[in-house]
Design a protein that fits this description.
single chain, 334 residues, alpha/beta, six-stranded mixed β-sheet, 12 strands, 52% helix, 16% strand, globular
């Protein structure tokens, strides 16, 4: 036990060292290159075997949310002496095939999202049959235990949606749009459904093609132009918030733009009042904890959650918190 505490102390010191390096004032690309180099050269805080963990997500290309998840996972991997592999595909069948590929590589642990759980069930079962421990992250909290995963790390999407509805009420909003950018994503449906339950006004779902930002903008703009009574737009991902702001401006609308998830641009938008609030589910924690918990399971058969999801959100972020969090968002950890 004393030895384990020593490892933890070293891990904390190492993490702080990486953090401070990430905040150095070299500026621009040089600062980013230095941060990446330091992360890559970090020393493991443990002497356990160099296990290989694979993370397979439903991310599309260019989604900054998943960059933050990966940053957390990679830092935990350095600390835990883990060989970390990442792959993604926003097509559920392709994502399932990536899980199969990880199984074929005989990885020591799998981290996977269940945005479209029906398509992923068999792949998770194959991992379990192969004796590979699985942790689910971000989406699929209701299916995680049923599918045989050790635990789920993320936010309860329905609860997060309910928090949005309550925040809209506090702000006196009466008519809102909930922008769903990925059809079939159960987490997105749960967010909008939760918001609709607690919102005292009227909320309408608007489905857009999330892989086509011009289409997203034109769809939101058309809706705002056709209904001037809409006074709030809720996007379900940080990259879509700025697009919604442009749609609002072009439509001549006065609607407040709010969003799920946080990144540097969202933090800036909160500060300059182009955005009202954001719902942060702390993606860095989702990646970091997933790797760390798999390591703990391999090392010591530890499991967290007691059969319930390990929640990383929701946290409502407003202008008051934005300046403090922007520093962390710039370094890719919030």
């Amino acid at each position: 036990m004393a030895r384990f505490r020593t490892w933890v102390s070293i891990a904390v010191a190492g993490a702080l060292g990486l953090t401070l390096a990430g905040c150095s004032s070299t500026g621009g690309k040089r600062a980013e290159d230095a941060r990446k180099a330091q992360t890559a050269q970090g020393k493991a805080a443990v002497n356990t075997p160099r296990w290989t963990f694979a993370m397979i997500t439903h991310s599309g290309d260019g989604d900054t949310f998943w960059d933050i998840v990966q940053n957390g996972a990679k830092q935990a991997a350095v600390k835990d002496n883990i060989n970390f592999l990442y792959s993604h595909n926003d097509e559920a069948n392709q994502q399932a095939q990536l899980v199969d590929a990880a199984i074929d590589k005989k990885v020591d642990g799998i981290i996977v999202t269940l945005a479209k759980p029906d398509a992923m069930k068999a792949a998770v079962a194959r991992a379990e049959k192969a004796g590979i421990p699985v942790i689910t992250v971000n989406s699929g909290s209701e299916e995680s235990k049923k599918f045989g995963a050790l635990t789920h790390i993320g936010q309860d999407e329905k609860i997060a949606g309910e928090a949005v509805g309550e925040e809209l009420n506090k702000r006196g909003r009466k008519k809102a749009l909930c922008i769903l950018h990925e059809q079939g994503n159960v987490g997105h449906e749960q967010r909008c459904a939760g918001a609709k339950e607690t919102f005292d006004g009227t909320m309408t779902n608007l489905y857009v093609e999330g892989t086509n930002m011009p289409d997203v903008q034109s769809s939101i703009e058309a809706k705002l132009q056709s209904d001037s009574s809409v006074d709030a737009v809720v996007t379900l991902g940080a990259p879509f918030a700025a697009t919604a702001v442009k749609a609002k401006e072009d439509a001549g609308s006065k609607a407040e733009i709010d969003t799920f998830d946080l990144n540097e641009k969202v933090a800036q938008g909160l500060e300059d009042d182009s955005l009202g609030f954001a719902v942060d589910q702390q993606p860095y924690l989702q990646g970091y904890q997933a790797v760390d918990l798999l390591w703990l399971y391999r090392y010591n058969a530890n499991v967290l959650g007691g059969g319930k999801p390990v929640l990383t959100g929701p946290q409502i972020v407003t202008k008051d918190e934005a300046a403090k969090l922007e520093e962390y968002a710039k370094r890719g950890t919030r």
